[in-house]
Specification:
Length: 254
Amino acid sequence: MSRILVAVPHADELAFHCGGTIARLVGEGHDIYQVVVTTGAKSSFVRPRGEMEVIISEEARKSAEILGLKDIFLWNSGDNLNEHDTPIIQERLTALARYLNIDTIFGFDPSATRDAHPDQIIVGKASVWTAYFCAFPLHYPHQRDFGLEPCRITDQYQFAYHPEGDHLETLDISDTIEKKVEAVLAYESQMVWCADIEIDRMKRMGIPYDHIDRDNYSPAIADDVRREATERGASHGFAYAEIMRHISGGEVLT
């Protein structure tokens, strides 16, 4: 069985981008951990930052429980990461991977920049760096003083809004699509956030937005999640699927 770490900048991104695959892996007996780099404190048009931090942490734990994660680590980095944060995130990710003795890591594809949030690119880069150098003892050798021994990460799964390039795999989530939807909808505050983003976009474009119910946007999000998974599975004969870049030195999903 594998020990898998999913590294994301924002809490809801695991559920949105790989929730079906993670639910499948949990069902197969793998140990799955999530690390959320930022607090998500700015993900609201109306709520204050301190309130959002508490709300999102509670929603993250609920979503993690739905998916059956082994544990979730909520870090306190602020939103709007920049390149100066990358070395710190790399070191912390390496320490966590060694602490958990991870062999597989999921994260954003840092090369798939179309529509990507800058935080996603930075945490994606840190995940790739961790995957390659976590096994080498001269990278962060002081971590050994705390009992954190190097570990070898054999598999990387990289997701994106628009997966492209080589090493892409279409992963069947037909049996876990409803678990994925449930995990996404656990982020009730982010359903409102998504509605408000869409309303703001339409306002700026002069498009009518009266049809958007910001207080009951969950059904629209659920429909979008199922639609995307249907489109991604169609060419491979799957009812629902997720697509990721898989860089492999071993086998996790077959």
